[in-house]
Amino acid sequence: MSHLKKLLFAFAILISSAAVTAPAAVAQGSTIVAIDEVKILRESKAGKDMATKLDNIETQMNNELNPERTTLQTEGKALDAKLAGKTRAQVNADAALVTELNNYQAKANAFAAKAQKASQEFSLTERVALGNFNKALEPVLLQVIQEKNAQLVVSKSSVIYSADTIDASALLIQKLDAATPTLTVTRQKIPDQPAPQ
C-alpha cells in the first residue's frame, strides 16, 4: 500500500469522527460541505511537509540498510559460484563450505529481521505523523464547519456527485496552511526484542 493510500485511510477516520460532531442533516435546507482528502494532503503545506519528511526518513532508513544488503548480495554471489556444479553430497562433504553457508544464512536471517524492524518503525512513524497532521487539521475542520454552518461533512471520494459550491477543501487548506505550515515528523523506534531462549 502506498504512503498516500495509508495516510488517506487514516485521514478518512478523522473526517468521519469530525463529521459525527455535527448533527446529521435531515431537514431540508441543511448545509452540507464536501472535502477532498487527497487534495488536502497533497496541497496543504503541512501535508507536503509531512510527505517530504517521511520520504527523507525512508531514504535514511534504506541508506542504513544498503551497506549490509550489498555485502550479503556480494557474499551470496560468491557462494553461488562455489556451489556451481556441485551436488548436495559434494557440498555436505565440504565442511568449510557448509560452515560458510550456515554463517551466510545466519547473516541473511539477521538482516531480514533488521529490515522487518525498519519497515515496522517506518509504518509507526507514518501513523504518528498522520496523527499529528490530524491533530492540526481537526480544529481547522471544526472552524470551517462552524463558518459554513454545516450540519454534514462528506468526503468527495465517497460521493457520486457534489457541486463545487459545497467543496470546502480550498478553504480548509488555506486555514490549515495559516495555522500549521509545517509538522514535526520524528523517526519512531521499536525496542529490540530479547532473543528467544
Walk me through this protein's architecture.
With 197 residues, the chain is mainly α. It has one domain: Skp domain (Protein Binding, DinI Protein, Chain A). 69% of the residues lie in helices and 4% in strands. The protein has 6 helices and 2 strands, in the order αβααααβα. The protein has helices spanning 3-20, 37-43, 45-83, 88-93, 95-148, 169-179, and strands at 32-35, 152-155. A two-stranded parallel sheet has the order 1-2. Mean pLDDT is 87; it is low at 18-27.
Structure summarized in a few sentences:
The chain is mainly α and 197 residues long. The chain is built from six helices and two strands. The protein has a two-stranded parallel sheet with strand order 1-2.
Topology:
Layout: H1 3-20, E1 32-35, H2 37-43, H3 45-83, H4 88-93, H5 95-148, E2 152-155, H6 169-179
Parallel strand pairs: 1-2
Helix pairs in contact: 1-5, 2-3, 2-6, 3-5, 5-6
Sum up the structure in keywords:
197 residues; Protein Binding, DinI Protein, Chain A; elongated; 69% helix; mainly alpha; 4% strand
Structural class from helices and strands?
A: mainly alpha
Shape: elongated
- CATH class designation: Alpha Beta
Task: Please tell me the CATH architecture by its name.
Answer: 2-Layer Sandwich
As a percent range, the share of helical residues equals 55-70%
CATH topology: Protein Binding, DinI Protein, Chain A
Going by CATH, what is the homologous superfamily? Answer: Skp domain
**What is the average of the pLDDT values?**
87
Number of domains: 1
Ends distance: 35 Å
SS elements, strand count: 2
Order of helices and strands: HEHHHHEH
Query: Approximately what portion of the residues adopt beta-strand conformation?
Result: under 5%
Arrangement of strands in the largest sheet: 1-2
- The tally of helices reads 6
Unreliable parts: 18-27
Biggest sheet features: 2 strands, parallel
Rg computed from alpha carbons, rounded to a whole number of angstroms: 25 Å
